[in-house]
Fold these 3 entries.
Entry 1:
Amino acid sequence: MLTVDFSRFPLAPGDRVLDLGCGAGRHAFECYRRGAQVVALDQNGEEIREVAKWFAAMKEAGEAPAGATATAMEGDALALPFPDESFDVVIISEVMEHIPDDKGVLAEMVRVLRPGGRIAVTVPRYGPEKVCWTLSDAYHEVEGGHIRIYKADQLLARMREAGLRPYGTHHAHALHSPYWWLKCAFGVDNDKALPVRAYHKLLVWDIMKKPLATRLAERTLNPVMGKSFVAYATKPHLPRAAAGAVAEAGAGAGADTATAAEAGAATP
C-alpha cells in the first residue's frame, strides 16, 4: 500500500533515493522495482533487518531491473550519515509527526538532496487524525507515538522555510480512516472487537484484490476523508549570482587555509 503517488512523483532508473524512516520498506521496495539506487534508513534495527531480507529476496526473484541497488541501514534522521547532495529523491512517509525537531529533519533532508532533486512528505491528515486523538488518548500518548497534528498549510510553510518549493499535494487512504476510528473507539490494542475485525478483513481484501468499486470509492472519498496528506516539492537550484558568491567564498576560505598552513609550516 503506497502513500506516495509515483505518477505525480516521477522516478527514473538510476535515481539515488533515500527512504527516510522507511519502516517496513513499502516505498523503498517500489523504488527498487523501478530501477533506483535505494537507501532505506530507519532507527529501528529490527525493521531494518527485515527490509534487508526483503531486498535480498527481491533480487533473487529478479524483481529489480539490472542496475538497481538497495541498501538497508540504521540511522538517525537528525544526523544523516551522507555527504551533501547525495540523493536525487528523498521520501519521508508518516514519520515527521513522531519527531519533536521536525525542522531539523527537514534541514537534513534538504542538505542531502541535490539541487533540482525531489522530495515527498506524507503525514496524517488533520481532520481524520483529530478524530483519532479525540476518541483515544492511547492512540497518541505512547512512547514514539504521534506528538503533533499537521494542518496542510503548516506543513507546506515548514517545507518552504527549509528551502523547498512545493509543487503538488493530495490526500490518500480514505478507506483507512474509518478503520482507525473504530480502533480508537473500541481500544487501539483491542483487535478482537467485531467491527474492527470485519473492517480489517475488508481492507486486506481491498489491498490484495484491488477491485474497481473500492478503488473508485477511495478516489472519490480521498479529498473528504483521506487518512494521509501528501506534499511534493523540489529543491531549487541556487541563482547563478548566489552560486558564484558561494564558490568565491569557498575559494577564499581555501586560500586563507593554505596561507595559514604555510605560515604554520614556516614557524620554527
Entry 2:
Amino acid sequence: MLRVHFTAADLVRTRVSDGADPLWETVLSLHRLRDRSPDPALAACRRTRHGARQGPLGMLLPLVPPRGYFPDFLTPSAGAAGVEHGLEALMSTPRARLRSELTVLGGRNPLPSWTRSLADGEPATLRRLARSVRMYHHGTLGPNWPRISRRANTDRALRLQALWRGGAEAMLRTYDPSMRWRSPVLEVAYPVDRDLHLDGRGLLLVPSYFARSPVALADTELPPTLVYPARPRTDDGAPRSAECLAPLLGHTRTAVLQALGDDLTTTELAHRAGVSLSSASEHAAILRGAGLVSSVRQSNAVRHALTPLGSALLSADRPD
C-alpha cells in the first residue's frame, strides 16, 4: 500500500491535471502493449512489434519492463505541456539522475549495453531516446489521441465537480475503491509498501487512459504526482460526429479540428485533414482564436494541439 500523507496546506495545493499527459500515456501504453489482449488503440502496434527491434520499441521496451519500476526521467512534469516540452526536459536530465535511476532499473532487469552511454548522459543517446519516444507516440498514440483525451477529460470533469462542490477532501473520496481517503491519509492500492509525505507541496492527480492501477513517481524529492486509471464512459469510443459540428464550424474546419488527435505541424495537419497547407494554416488560426487549438513555433515549424476546450467539444463533454 502507498500512504500519501496530507497537511492542510497540501489539500489546498492538490489539483487535477489539465488532461492526459502524453509522456505518461506513452510509457504506460508500453505496459499495456504486452497484455494478452491489448487495448484496441495498440492493436496495430502489437502486430508489428516483434519485428521492430531496430525501431522505437527496440529502445523503449528495455526501459519499461512489463511490471514494476521504470525510470522517473521518462515522465518529466514538463510533459504536461506537450510531447516536445517533455522531450526537451528528458534530454536535459542530469547525468547523476540518469545513472542513479538506470542503476535501480538494472538491478531488477537486464539492460542492453547501449544504456551505459545513456547513463553517462551522452547527448547522441539522449537524442536517440527522444526520437524513439516521439516516433512511437506520434505513430501509435497520435491517431488514437482523441479517444485518450476524451476519457481523461471526462474523468477530470467528474473530479472537478466534486472539488467545486465539496473541496479537496470531497474530491479525494471519489477515487474508491483503489484509493481511499482516510483523513489525513490517502491509502492507495500499490504493489509495494511505502509512505509519501507531501510536506506542503500538494499532489498532482493525473487521469490516464492506459494506467492499470495508480502509479506514483519513485523519487519522493520530485513534485508529488499520482497517475490513476481514468474512469471510462459508456460511449468512450465514439467521438462527436462531423454532422454535429459541421453546421457550427463548417465541414473543412471540423475536419481540421478532428484531425488534431496529437500535436501536429501545419504540414502534418494539412495531410491528415486532406486540405491544402494554406487552408490548414488559416483554419488553425481561427480555431486558435476561439480557444480550441494552441500553436507553438519550434524551429521552422508550427505545431498545433487541441486545448482542453477543443477536446471537450469533440468529446461532447458539457460543464455541469
Entry 3:
Amino acid sequence: MTAQNSATLPTTIAVKNPVRRGTALALLGVVAFSLTFPATAWGLESFGPWSLVALRSVLAAAIAGAFLLARQVPLPAREHWAGLAVVAAGVVVGFPMLTTLALTTSTTSHAAVVVGLLPLTTAALSALRTGVRPSRTFWAAALAGAAVVIAFTLAQSGSALSVGDAYLFGALLVCAAGYTEGGRLARLLPGWQVIGWALVLCLPLSLAGSAVGLAYEPVHLSGHGLAGLIWAAAGSTFLGLYVWYRGMAEIGAPRASQLQLAQPLLTLVWSVALLGEHLSPAAPAAACAVLVCIAVTQRVK
C-alpha cells in the first residue's frame, strides 16, 4: 500500500462509518416505532385515550428528566426552544393523541396506513424546510414504496375508510413536521436531548391532562394495559425517538424517512403476534417490494 493510499484510507472509513451507524440507529428507531400501535391497543385495554396519552408523556418525561439531571445538561439556547416546541407538538402530543383516538375505532393494520404515508410526507417537508432537493429517482422510489404500503394496508382493512381516518391524516402531518424539525435540531444537539427537552417542555400539560383524564375516564388495570403504557412511554416515546433523531442527523431526514416504509409491515407482524389479527398472504410480496424501494432510496441522492 502506498503512502498516498494509506493516507486516504482512514478518511474513506471515517466517511462511511457515520452513514452505517446512522442507518442502524434509524432502523432501531423504526423497530421501536413499529410496536407503538400494538402497545397503544394494549394500553387502551386499561386506560381511556386521553389518560393513556397523558400518562405516556408523563412517564417518558420522567425518564428524560432523570437523564438530563444525571448528565447535568444545561438548558438549550433560546433559539432552540421554538424548534423544540414544534417537536413537542408533533411527536409528543399530536401524533400520540390523534393515533390513539383513531385506534379506538380502527384496527392497528388500518391505522398503519398513516405510517406508510409518513416517509414521503417527512421527505417533502424536510426538503421545504432545509432546501435539500433529492433526485427524481429518489422521489420515484419513495412514491412507489408509499404506494405499495398504502395499497397493502388498505387491502388489509378491506379498503373501507373509518371515522378515525381524519385523526390519522392529521397525525401524519403533525408527526412529519415534528420529525423534520427534530432532525434539524439533532444536528445541533444530541438526539436524546432533543426529545428529552421536548418531553420536559410538555410535562405541565401532561400532568394536567393525566389528572383530568383519570378523573373522567374509567381505569381497568391489566398486565397488557400496563405493558402497553410502559412500552409506549419508554420504548416508543423516549428510546425510539432518541435513536431515530440521532440516526436522522447522520444520514439526513429524506433517507431516514424512507426506512420507515418497512414500519407498517413490521406493525402488521406485531399485530398478528401480539393482538391475534390476521395477516394477508400478500404480506411477503409487499415486504419484498418495499425493501427494493428502500434499497433504491438509500443508494441515490
